[in-house]
Structures are given as C-alpha cells and as structure tokens.
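Summary of Year 1 activities. Much of the first year was spent building the evaluation harness for sequence design. The harness presents a backbone, in tokenized form, and records the residue chosen at every position. We chose the following record to illustrate the format because it has been used consistently in internal testing since the harness was completed.
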C-alpha cells in the first residue's frame, strides 16, 4: 500500500516537446521511488493554448465561450496522452484522464469555470493499484456534461484541488525555480524566497505575478495544501529542499515589511465622472459586471462636489472590451432617470506596481518609502490603493520596469 500522495503539475513551457516530457517524467519516477502515490497534472504544450485562441478568433472575433472551451481543452488532452505515453515508454504504469474522466465537476461559466467537486473514487482506485494518474489541467465538466475551462493558467488550480481532495501535497513545476522578490526578467537583482505565506502569494497572484493562478493559492490556503514551486528541468528530482514553499506561517525571524514587488501589466481603467451619489448607485454599476464574472481589481471612489462622486476602477485590459458597453448601458439607464453620470472614460496603457508583505501590518512607513523611491525617479503615480499587506500604485506602462527596479532596491530586496 502506497502512503502519501503528491500532485505534480507541469506548465506549458515544461512540456513544450517530447524530450521535455521525459525530463518531467523523472520527477514522477523519483516520487514513486520514495513510495508516493503520484498524480501528474499537465498544461497544454508550449504556446498551444495561445495558438488555439488565435485559430478560434479567425472563425469568430469574440469566440463563443462554449465552443472555445471545447477547442482549448484539446491542448491539455494532447499533453496527458503524451505524458502517459512517455511514462509507459519508461516502463511506468500510467493512465491519462481528461477533466471529465477524472470527475472534476465545475459550474457552467464557460471560460472561467469554478471547480465544484471532484469525485476521487476512480483516481484512488488507480493510484492504489500503483498507476500514475495523468490528469488534464485547466478543464472540467459542467452540470450539463459540457467541457469547461477554468481561465488562463487554471492548471495550477486543478493541481491544488486534486491535492486537497486526495489529501496530498502539491508541486508546481515551472520554468522558474521558485517565487522571487520580483520578476528576475524585470529586476535582475531579484532573489528567490525559500518560503512565502499563502496570504502574500494571494496578493501577488491577484496582482498578476505569473507564478501561480490566484484561485490555486486561495484553494491551497482554504484547505491547507502545502505547495512547492520548483524548476522543472534544473531541479534535481531527489532534492526536497529547493524551490519555494508556500505555507501558512513563515518564521517570524524571516519577517520583513515587504517580501516582494509585483508589476502587473495590461491594466485597464474605467472612470465614471460626476455620479449622483444616491444609495445603491455602486451596486447598479458593479452588479452587471459581477453577473458576467468580470473581475475588478481596485475601486476608488472620490468626492466630486456636493453629493457627487467619481468612481474609478482597474481591471484586466482584455476585459475592457466586454465591460465598457455594459457600463455605458448602466450610465444610460441612470441618466434616463434624470440622475447624473457625466462621463464614462475607458483607458489602458497602464501598469500596477505593488509592494507585498505580511510584515507590513506591523511596520510603519512602508507606503512613504515606496512613494519616496518613485519620486526620486520622477515617476508619476496615477492611483493608489492599499490592503493590510499591500500597497499598489497605478503607473504609465512606460514607467513600469524602472519603477519595479527602484522600489525593489528601496526595500533592500536585492
Ligand atoms: N493551457 C492553459 C493556459 O495556457 C492552462 C494553463 O496553462 O494552466 O492558460
Ligand atoms: Mg499555457
């Protein structure tokens, strides 16, 4: 009887060609040698998902979401078959499973589905029989039996959900060897963090740090799943210490005000100017966006004369196209009731630079230090928002990289 369970997830760049599948398989072999039950979750090979989206857009500029899910799910289906074949080629018993075959049940929000439950009966039977179960990331099955996808980068969520269901740990294999104090491509002085807290990762992920899918971190935190981020090919399969562990608590000795600096690109912004601040006006604006599951980043409300406010929020640039007409509609409806919304502005070309750290709760002066660093570089701040453990500044896109470097240096992270 095999003891503990490990879910190993490999991202698209880790399985970009046949040789890379073989390298990834070494990690499964090592875990088997340690006597673990092994589940592998794979993403689509290389840029397969992007290529499929491009293909769909040639058929229909804003592809029907159900059909797009049907198409995108094929990317992961190629990968699971390739991984199972690779393992079998190495003499390891393995079986590939689509989201549906692995009984990953989601709601029916195509393109952004949420996992509702996983029936682990079949998986447990396979694992106990010594098979490596290779499960397609990023996909599930809706109540009506249709293929759904979980949103870009959703394979991480599949992996953590499986680890939670099976009571195991989760390893995320990527083309980076862990979580860094900043994106090293942007800030060469960035360093790897051996341990990061769930809540720090949650802020970073929500901000678009590409390391982990936000829902995956949320789920890891909720179910207490230990997650390790490691490099898929540079990391020695026998080494259990490398990478970054994402955990509930870190050593208080390691505590610092700012753990990392995250630059979110492709930020869009919508502003409503001169809004009559009657009770319920915010609900009327954001309700229809929520109905379409359009994620909002930060909301700023400011006074604009007596009884009047400006309402500004940021969201992914890619969601602007869908959000803008909805907001225009709301504005029209409000005006039709002889209430005011003077103007709707839609803008892009922005980035959000954030400093994140659990130690911020107890360290004063963090915001001032960040503003000081930006001021010295002559960088204009367009908007500011904060949470208990995060300070975010919206900046012009062209200032992004320079801002990341100077803030990273100001907090001594290099
Ligand atoms: N293949 C999907 C994507 O590229 C899912 C994933 O990689 O996690 O977004
Ligand atoms: Mg991918």
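For this record, the design step produced the sequence shown next.
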């Amino acid at each position: 009887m095999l003891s503990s369970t490990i879910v190993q997830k490999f991202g698209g760049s880790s399985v970009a060609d046949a040789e890379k599948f073989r390298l990834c398989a070494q990690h499964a072999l090592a875990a088997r040698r340690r006597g673990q039950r092994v589940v592998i979750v794979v993403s689509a090979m290389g840029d397969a998902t992007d290529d499929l989206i491009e293909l769909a857009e040639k058929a229909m500029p804003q592809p029907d979401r159900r059909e797009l899910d049907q198409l995108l799910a094929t990317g992961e289906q190629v990968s699971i078959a390739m991984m199972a074949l690779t393992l079998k080629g190495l003499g390891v018993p393995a079986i590939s499973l689509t989201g549906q075959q692995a009984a990953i049940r989601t709601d029916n929000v195509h393109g952004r589905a949420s996992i509702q439950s996983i029936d682990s009966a079949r998986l447990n039977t396979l694992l106990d029989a010594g098979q490596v179960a290779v499960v397609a990331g990023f996909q599930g099955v809706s109540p009506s039996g249709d293929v759904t996808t979980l949103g870009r980068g959703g394979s991480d969520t599949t992996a953590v959900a499986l680890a939670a269901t099976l009571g195991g740990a989760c390893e995320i294999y990527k083309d980076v060897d862990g979580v860094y104090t900043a994106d090293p491509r942007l800030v060469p002085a960035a360093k790897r963090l051996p341990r990061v807290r769930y809540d720090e990762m949650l802020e970073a992920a929500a901000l678009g740090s590409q390391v982990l899918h936000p829902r995956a971190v949320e789920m890891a935190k909720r179910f207490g799943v230990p997650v390790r981020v490691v490099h898929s090919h540079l990391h020695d399969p026998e080494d259990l210490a490398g990478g970054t562990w994402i955990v509930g608590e870190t050593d208080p000795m390691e505590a610092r005000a700012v753990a990392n600096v995250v630059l979110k690109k492709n930020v869009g912004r919508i502003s409503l100017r001169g809004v009559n601040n009657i009770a319920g006006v915010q609900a009327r604006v954001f309700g229809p966006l929520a109905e379409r599951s359009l994620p909002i980043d930060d909301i700023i409300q400011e006074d604009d004369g007596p009884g009047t406010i400006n309402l500004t929020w940021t969201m992914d640039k890619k969601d602007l196209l869908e959000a803008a007409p909805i907001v225009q509609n709301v504005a029209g409806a409000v005006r039709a009731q002889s209430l005011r919304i003077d103007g709707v502005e839609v803008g892009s070309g922005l980035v959000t630079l954030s400093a994140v750290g659990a130690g911020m709760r107890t360290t004063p002066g963090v915001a001032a230090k960040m503003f000081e660093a930006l001021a010295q570089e002559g960088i204009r701040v367009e908007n500011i928002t904060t949470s208990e453990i995060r300070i975010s500044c919206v900046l012009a896109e062209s200032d992004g990289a320079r801002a990341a470097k100077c803030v990273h240096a100001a907090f001594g992270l290099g």
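The first strand starts at residue 5 and ends at 10. Quantitative recovery figures across the full test set are reported in Table 2.
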